[in-house]
From TrEMBL:
This is Exocyst subunit Exo70 family protein. Residues 57-68 have a biased composition (Acidic residues). One of its GO terms (molecular function) is phosphatidylinositol-4,5-bisphosphate binding. Residues 201-214, 225-241 have a biased composition (Low complexity). Gene3D superfamilies: Exocyst complex component Exo70 (1.20.1280.170). Keywords: Exocytosis, Protein transport, Transport. Component of the exocyst complex.
Length: 689
C-alpha cells in the first residue's frame, strides 16, 4: 500500500487512520468507529466496494478494503464538506418549513479532520487571518466559524441532536476547543509583539511556529488557570515598539471574531486586556515610572519625591495623550460594533489611572512645605489638561452606544476620580501659598544683615513669588475654586492677587522692622534701599508678577526708595556739608579765624575718615543703585569741598601746615566716594601731591 506523505509536526496534523483521528478527543481515549454509527459505516463500505469493482474488475475484497482505507487517509475536501455542513445547519435553522437535512457521523469526523488539517497547514503562514482577494473571510476563519456553528447546533438544549452523534459531538467540540487554543495563542503572540504579524516564516527561526510551542510559553486561559500577566509581555511591549499596523489590526479582529463565534469571548477579552495592561505598564516603566504605595510616597524625603513627581508627570501625560488614545483606537478596531471594546478600554483606563492617581493622593497627603508648591501645581495642570481628553473618550463611547445596556458610562468613574484628585491638589497648593504669611511672621530674627545688604528673606520670597507668578493662571484658578480671602466679594475679584499683595505687604512691614535693628540711621536707610530696590527690580523684571502687583504699587515703592535716599543723604552728608559752610564763624569782619578754620578741617578729615571706614564696608549690590548713590553724593559734596578749598587753602602757610590740615584734594574726595558701598573698609588715603 502506498505511504501517505509525511505531514508537518503539529498537534493538528491528521492521523494516518480514521481510528487514530477519532481517538484524539480530549481525555476520551480511543473510540472505535465500529462501536457506533454501524449503518453509516456499512453504507460507506458498500459504496466503496462498488467503485472498486467498476475500476479494477478483478481485485479481491481485501484489496478493495485496503483501497477504501487509503482513500479515507487522503486529505478531506474542505469545500465539499463545508457545503454539506452548511446544508445541515440551514435545515436546522429553517424551523418546520423545510425538511431537516441529515448528516452522518463520518461526515462530522471528516469535517473536523479537515478543519484540523487547515489549521496545521496554516501554521507559519502570516496571511492565514488576512481576508481573501475578493473580500471574503479567510478560509481558516470561515472553517472555524462553521465548526463553532456546528458545535452549537449539536450541543443545543433539548432540541439538539448531539445524542444522535456521540462520537461526532465529542470530535467536533474537541477540535473546536483546540482551535480556540490555537487562535488564542496566535492572538496573544501578536498582542505580545505586533511585529510578529509582519514577520515571515523564515524570520521565526528559533520558534517552532506551532500552537503547541506557543502553549508551552503561555498556557491557554480556558481549561487551565485564568490568564495572568507574564513577564514576556511586559518585556516586549516597550514604548519604542511600533504601533499596530492596519494589517495586524485586521488579523486581531479576525481572531477575535473567530473566538466570539466559538463562544470564547470571555477568554478572548481576558487575553487582550491582560496583554494591553502589561503593555501600558511596560511603557510607563520605560519612562522611568515605578509604582509605589501610598505609604512609601508619604515617607519619601522630598529630594527623592521631587524627582518621582517629575517622572510621574511625564508618565501621566504620556499615558493620557499617547497610551490611552492608542488603546482606545485599538479596542475600537479589534472589537467594532459592540460594547466589548468599550468595556475593555474602560478597564484598561481604570487600571492605568487608579495607581497613578493614588500617587497624587499620596503627594497631597505629605506635610505641606513651600518648596512643594511648584510640583503640586505641575501635577494639578497635568490632571486638569487630561479632563478634556477623558471627556472626549466618554463622548465617543456615548455616541457609539446602540442600546441602554450600559446606562452609566464606565469612564465616568475616571472623570470623577480625576476631579477629586485635582481638587485635593488645588487645596494643597492654595494652602501652601497661604503658608507664606506664617513664614514671614515667624522670621523675626534679631541679628541685622551685615552691611545693610539684601535680606535672605527678601531674596527667597521675591524669587519664590516671581516663579509662582509663572503659574499665575493656574494659581488664579486654584484660588477661585479652593480659597476665598476675607475681602473677596465674589464680583470679579482675584483672590490670588489679593493673597500675593498680602504677602508683599507683610514682607515690606517685616523689612521695616528689621531696619530698626541698625543703630546707624544711615545704614538703616541703606538696608531699606537695598531691599526695596531688589523687590522693585524683581517685579519690573517679570511681566507676570508685575501684572498681578500693578503699576500703582510699583510707583509707591519707587517713592519710598527716593525717600530712603534723601534720608540717607541727610543723615550722612548734611553734617559734612555743614562743616564746609562759612556761617560767620570762620570769617569775622573779613578776617579768617585760623583756629576755627583749623578745627573745621580737622572735623572734616575725621568725618571723611569715619565715612570711608564704615560705609566702605556697607553693601549696595545693585550696580545701578550704587552708581546713583555715588553720583548724588559727589554732585553735592565735591563742589562744596572744592569751593571751600578755593576760599581757605591759602590761609595756611605752604609746607607742613598745609599738609597737616588739608589732607584731601577734591580728586581724593571723589576717589573716596567712588569706593563706598563695595563692602571693603579702608583707611583714608594720603593726600595726593
Amino acid at each position: 500500500m502506498d505511504r501517505i506523505p509525511p505531514q508537518k509536526s503539529s498537534s493538528f496534523s491528521p492521523a494516518t487512520f480514521r481510528e487514530e483521528r477519532l481517538g484524539r478527543n480530549l481525555s476520551l481515549g480511543a473510540i472505535k468507529i465500529s462501536e457506533h454509527g454501524a449503518n453509516e459505516q456499512i453504507k460507506e463500505e458498500g459504496e466503496e466496494s462498488v467503485d472498486n469493482v467498476a475500476g479494477d474488475g478483478g481485485e479481491d475484497a481485501a484489496a478493495g478494503e485496503e483501497s477504501a482505507v487509503i482513500e479515507e487517509a487522503v486529505e478531506p475536501d474542505l469545500a465539499a464538506l463545508s457545503a454539506e455542513v452548511d446544508a445541515f445547519l440551514a435545515g436546522r435553522d429553517g424551523g418546520g418549513d423545510a425538511p431537516p437535512t441529515s448528516i452522518s457521523e463520518v461526515t462530522l469526523d471528516k469535517f473536523a479532520s479537515a478543519v484540523e488539517q487547515e489549521m496545521a497547514q496554516s501554521e507559519g503562514d502570516d496571511d492565514k487571518w488576512s481576508p481573501a482577494e475578493n473580500g471574503d473571510a479567510p478560509p481558516l476563519l470561515a472553517a472555524i466559524k462553521r465548526l463553532a456553528a456546528l458545535a452549537a447546533t449539536l450541543t443545543a438544549g433539548a432540541g439538539g441532536e448531539g445524542h444522535k452523534f456521540t462520537i461526532g459531538v465529542h470530535r467536533v467540540t474537541g477540535v473546536l476547543h483546540r482551535a480556540m487554543t490555537f487562535v488564542e495563542d496566535e492572538f496573544h503572540a501578536i498582542l505580545d509583539d505586533p511585529r510578529l504579524a509582519a514577520a515571515t516564516a523564515q524570520s521565526a527561526a528559533g520558534d517552532t511556529g506551532s500552537a503547541t510551542g506557543k502553549s508551552i510559553r503561555r498556557p491557554p486561559s480556558f481549561g487551565h488557570a485564568a490568564a495572568a500577566p507574564d513577564s514576556s509581555t511586559a518585556a516586549a511591549a516597550d514604548s519604542s515598539s511600533p504601533p499596530f499596523p492596519p494589517e495586524t489590526v485586521d488579523r486581531l479582529r479576525a481572531m477575535a471574531d473567530a473566538m466570539a463565534a466559538g463562544g470564547y469571548t470571555t477568554e478572548c477579552t481576558q487575553v487582550f486586556a491582560v496583554a494591553r495592561r502589561n503593555a501600558l505598564d511596560a511603557s510607563l516603566a520605560s519612562l522611568g515610572y515605578e509604582k509605589a504605595s501610598i505609604d512609601e510616597v508619604v515617607k519619601m524625603p522630598w529630594e527623592s519625591l521631587e524627582s518621582e513627581v517629575a517622572t510621574w508627570i511625564k508618565a501621566f501625560r504620556h499615558t493620557i495623550n499617547v497610551g490611552l488614545s492608542g488603546e482606545h483606537d485599538l479596542c475600537a478596531r479589534v472589537f467594532p460594533n459592540s460594547g466589548t471594546g468599550r468595556a475593555i478600554f474602560a478597564d484598561l483606563a481604570k487600571c492605568a489611572m487608579i495607581h497613578m492617581l493614588n500617587f497624587t493622593e499620596a503627594v497631597a497627603m505629605t506635610k505641606r512645605a513651600a518648596e512643594k508648591l511648584f510640583k503640586v501645581l505641575d501635577m494639578y495642570e497635568a490632571i486638569r489638561d487630561a479632563a478634556p481628553i477623558i471627556d472626549a473618550f466618554i463622548s465617543a463611547c456615548s455616541e457609539s452606544e446602540s442600546d441602554d445596556s450600559q446606562p452609566v458610562n464606565p469612564l465616568s468613574d475616571i472623570k470623577s476620580e480625576l476631579a477629586s484628585v485635582r481638587a485635593r491638589l488645588g487645596e494643597s497648593a492654595a494652602a501652601i501659598f497661604c503658608d507664606l504669611e506664617s513664614s514671614i511672621r515667624a522670621d523675626a530674627g534679631k541679628q541685622p544683615v551685615p552691611g545693610g545688604a539684601v535680606h535672605p528673606l527678601t531674596r527667597y520670597l521675591m524669587n519664590y513669588l516671581k516663579y509662582a507668578c509663572e503659574y499665575k493662571n493656574t494659581l488664579e484658578q486654584v484660588f477661585r475654586e479652593h480659597h476665598r480671602t476675607d475681602d473677596d466679594d465674589g464680583n470679579g475679584s482675584n483672590p490670588f492677587a489679593a493673597q500675593l499683595m498680602e504677602v508683599m505687604e507683610l514682607l515690606h512691614g517685616n523689612l521695616e522692622a528689621k531696619s530698626r535693628l541698625y543703630k546707624d540711621p544711615s545704614l538703616c536707610n541703606i538696608f531699606l534701599m537695598n531691599n526695596g530696590r531688589y523687590m522693585l527690580q524683581k517685579i519690573r523684571g517679570s511681566p507676570e508678577i508685575n501684572s498681578v502687583v500693578g503699576e500703582a504699587w510699583s510707583r509707591k515703592r519707587s517713592t519710598d526708595l527716593r525717600q530712603y535716599h534723601k534720608n540717607y543723604q541727610r543723615e550722612t552728608w548734611s553734617r559734612v556739608l555743614n562743616l564746609l559752610r562759612d556761617d560767620g564763624v570762620i570769617t569775622v569782619k573779613g578776617s579768617v579765624q585760623k583756629p576755627v578754620l583749623k578745627e573745621r578741617f580737622k572735623q572734616f578729615n575725621a568725618a571723611m575718615d569715619e565715612i570711608q571706614r564704615t560705609q566702605g564696608a556697607w553693601v549696595v549690590s545693585d550696580e545701578q543703585l550704587q552708581s546713583e548713590l555715588r553720583v548724588s553724593i559727589a554732585a553735592v559734596v565735591v563742589p562744596a569741598y572744592r569751593s571751600f578749598l578755593g576760599r581757605f587753602a591759602q590761609s595756611f602757610s605752604a609746607g607742613r601746615q598745609t599738609e597737616k590740615y588739608i589732607k584731601l584734594s577734591a580728586e581724593d574726595l571723589e576717589s573716596i566716594i567712588d569706593e563706598l558701598f563695595d563692602g571693603n573698609a579702608v583707611s583714608m588715603p594720603r593726600r595726593r601731591n
